[in-house]
Design goal:
Largest interface: A-B, 28 and 26 residues
Largest sheet of chain B: none
Helix content of chain A: 25-40%
Oligomer: heterodimer
CATH topology of the largest domain in chain A: Rossmann fold
Number of strands of chain B: 0
Number of domains of chain A: 2
Distance between the termini of chain A: 33 Å
Shape of chain A: elongated
Distance between the termini of chain B: 26 Å
Number of helices of chain B: 12
Strand content of chain A: 25-35%
Number of domains of chain B: 1
Number of helices of chain A: 11
Structural class of chain A: alpha/beta
C-alpha cells in the first residue's frame, strides 16, 4: 500500500531524511520509531503530499505522491503531530467541513460523521466547541477526521503524545481496532506502544532506516547473552567468587547491604544460567530471596541501535 | 473548484465566531457615519462623494485587519497541514479565503446603503455617482483583500500581517499624491500604480474600463502570487 524508495529530503543543508526505503503491505500496522528529530514527521509529510522529497520516489495505494498528489490525498487519513484543529468550531461543524473537503457524498455525510463519532467515542461532545475540549478528546476528534472518507491508509504522527495513561490506552485500542480495516503507519517514540500495537517496526535514526522487522524478531536478533538479578543472604565476597566460577558467567556486580546482598550476573551465549546459579547457591547453603532473568526490551534495542553510531 | 464554497463557508463562519468581524464592522460604521454627517453639514450637498473619499483611508486600515488571520493563523496553529493534505488544491483554498474576506468587506459596506436612503429623504442626490462609487468600492476592496491575503500568507504572525498590509495600502494610496502635478514617465507610472487616481474617477460617476482593469488585474495578480507562496513550501 505504501512504497518508499530511496527517499531523501534536505532542508537548506540539513539532511532530514536520507535514502529511506520501506514498504507497508495492505492491512499492516507499522510503527515508525525513532528519537525526536529522526525524520519521522518529514517522512510522513512527504507521504501525505504536504511537501515533496528532494529525491527518491514514494507511492501510496498505487499513486505517486509527486505526480498524483490529489489521488493520494483521497486515499489517506492523516493525523499530524499535535492535532491541529480550528478551536472556534464545534465538533460536528468541523467534521462536516472536513467531510465536504474530502468529498464524502452529501447523502452519506451525516451517517459517516455519526459513525466516526461513534467509533472514536466522542458522541457526547458532538456539539462542543473544540477549543474547550480536553487533549484526549481533541486527539479523538482528529482521529475521527482521518476516518471520515473511509481511507485505505491511515498515517498517524505521534497519536498518543500528551495524553494521560487512560487516554493512551483508549487510543491504542482504537488504533488496534482500526488496523483491522485500514493500513496504518504510525510514528512514535514510545516503545511499549509499538510492542503492543504494531505488527512491524521501522526504526529510523538521523534520517536513516537502521532496523526493520517485527518486534519479536528484533528482540531475538539483538539478544546476546542474558542478565540475571539475584538477592542472596550470605557473605558477599564468597558469593561473588562462587558466582564468577560458574561457566559462562562474564561479569558479576554486587552491592552489599548487610546480610542480604544483591548481585547482577551477566553471561554470554543463549544458555540459561539460572539453573547453575541456583545449584551453586543451594550447594553453599545460602538463602536465595530472588532470582530473576531480565529480558531485553525493545527499549534496550532502540537505545542500542540509535546510539551505536554516535 | 468544488471546494471553494466549502472553504468560503468555513471562513465566513470563522469571522462571525470571533470578535474580529464585529469589531471591524462597528469601527467602520462609526467612523464612516461620523464623516458622512460632517461632510453633509459642511457641504450641505446631498452626495456621498466626500464621505466615501475618506472611507478609502479607513478601509485601507480595516481591510488588512479582516485579512490578517486568513493564512497566518493556519500556519501558526498548524491547521495548514490538515487543510493541505485534504484533497484540495492550493488555488481552491486561497480563492475560497479571498472570497470570504471580500464577502465580509461587502457585509461591512452594506449598512452604509442607509446613507443613500437618508440623502434621498433630506435632498435629491444624484444616484449615478453613488452607484459608480459603490462599484469602485467593491473593486477596490477586492484588491485590498488580495494584498492583505498575500501578506497573511507570508507570515505566521497576524499582527505583522495586519501592519504590513496597512503600510502597503498606505503606500499605494500615497504614491499617486506624491507625484501629483509633476510630469514625465516616472510620475505617470506612479500615478497609475497608486490607487487614488483610479478610485477618484468612480466617485465622479465614471466607470472607466482602465480603472476596472487596474483593480481586477492587480487582484488577480496578488491572488496568483498568494497561491505561489502557499505552493512554495514544496520547493523551499
Amino acid at each position: 500500500m505504501i512504497k518508499v524508495e530511496h527517499l531523501t529530503k534536505s532542508y537548506a543543508n540539513v539532511l532530514a531524511v536520507e535514502d529511506v526505503s520501506f514498504e507497508v503491505g495492505e492491512g499492516e500496522i507499522v510503527g515508525l520509531l525513532g528519537p525526536n528529530g529522526a525524520g519521522k514527521t518529514t517522512t510522513m509529510r512527504i507521504l501525505t503530499c504536504f511537501m515533496p522529497a528532494t529525491s527518491g520516489t514514494a507511492s501510496v495505494a498505487g499513486y505517486d505522491v509527486f505526480t498524483d498528489s490529489l489521488n493520494v490525498r483521497k486515499q489517506i487519513g492523516y493525523l499530524p503531530e499535535n492535532v491541529p484543529l480550528y478551536p472556534e468550531m464545534r465538533v460536528n461543524e468541523y467534521l462536516l467541513f472536513r467531510a465536504k473537503l474530502k468529498k464524502v457524498p452529501s447523502k452519506e455525510r451525516n451517517s459517516r460523521i455519526q459513525e466516526c463519532l461513534e467509533r472514536c467515542g466522542i458522541r457526547e461532545v458532538e456539539k462542543q466547541i473544540i477549543g474547550t475540549l480536553s487533549k484526549g478528546y481533541r486527539q479523538r476528534v482528529g482521529l475521527a477526521d482521518t476516518l471520515l472518507h473511509d481511507p485505505k491508509i491511515l498515517i498517524l504522527d505521534e497519536p498518543t503524545i500528551g495524553l494521560d495513561p487512560n487516554q493512551i490506552r483508549q487510543i491504542r485500542q482504537l488504533i488496534k481496532a482500526l488496523g483491522e480495516k485500514h493500513t496504518v503507519l504510525l510514528s512514535t517514540h514510545i516503545l511499549p506502544e509499538v510492542e503492543m500495537i504494531c505488527g512491524r517496526v521501522i526504526i529510523i535514526n538521523r534520517g536513516k532506516v537502521v532496523a526493520m522487522d517485527t518486534p519479536s524478531n528484533l528482540l531475538t536478533s539483538l539478544k546476546g547473552g542474558a542478565t540475571v538479578h539475584l538477592e542472596v543472604a550470605g557473605k558477599a565476597e564468597r558469593i561473588k567468587s562462587a558466582l564468577s566460577a560458574i561457566p559462562g558467567v562474564t561479569k558479576v556486580l554486587g552491592s552489599e547491604n548487610g546480610d542480604i546482598n544483591n548481585f547482577v550476573v551477566e553471561a554470554d551465549g543463549d544458555k540459561d544460567i539460572r539453573e547453575d546459579i541456583f545449584k551453586c547457591i543451594v550447594k553453599n547453603n545460602w538463602i536465595l530471596y530472588e532470582l530473576r532473568r531480565e529480558k531485553a526490551s525493545l527499549e534496550d534495542i532502540f537505545h542500542q541501535i540509535t546510539t551505536q553510531e554516535s | 473548484m468544488t471546494n471553494v464554497p466549502t472553504v468560503f463557508r468555513r471562513e465566513m463562519n470563522a469571522y462571525f465566531l470571533s470578535p474580529v468581524a464585529y469589531v471591524v464592522i462597528v469601527v467602520f460604521l462609526v467612523v464612516s457615519g461620523y464623516f458622512f454627517q460632517k461632510a453633509l453639514f459642511i457641504t450641505t450637498e446631498a452626495s456621498l462623494r466626500y464621505s466615501l473619499a475618506i472611507s478609502q483611508f479607513v478601509l485601507s486600515i480595516l481591510t488588512p485587519v479582516i485579512t490578517m488571520r486568513l493564512l497566518a493563523e493556519e500556519s501558526k496553529t498548524g491547521t495548514i497541514e490538515t487543510l493541505m493534505t485534504a484533497p484540495v488544491t492550493d488555488f481552491e483554498v486561497v480563492f475560497g479565503k479571498f472570497l470570504a474576506a471580500w464577502g465580509l468587506y461587502g457585509v461591512m459596506l452594506a449598512p452604509t446603503l442607509i446613507y443613500i436612503a437618508f440623502l434621498s429623504w433630506v435632498g435629491n442626490p444624484d444616484i449615478g455617482p453613488i452607484i459608480s462609487s459603490y462599484i469602485g468600492l467593491i473593486l477596490m476592496g477586492a484588491m485590498f483583500v488580495s494584498i492583505g491575503l498575500l501578506v497573511s500568507s507570508l507570515t505566521k504572525n497576524q499582527i505583522v500581517a495586519a501592519v504590513i498590509g496597512i503600510v502597503s495600502l498606505m503606500i499605494l494610496w500615497v504614491v499617486g499624491f506624491y507625484v501629483a502635478g509633476t510630469e514625465g514617465w516616472f510620475s505617470e507610472a506612479l500615478k497609475y500604480i497608486g490607487t487614488f487616481g483610479h478610485w477618484d474617477t468612480f466617485t465622479k460617476g465614471l466607470v472607466d474600463t482602465r480603472d476596472v482593469v487596474y483593480y481586477v488585474s492587480l487582484t488577480a495578480l496578488f491572488v496568483f502570487i498568494t497561491v505561489r507562496v502557499i505552493e512554495s513550501r514544496k520547493w523551499r
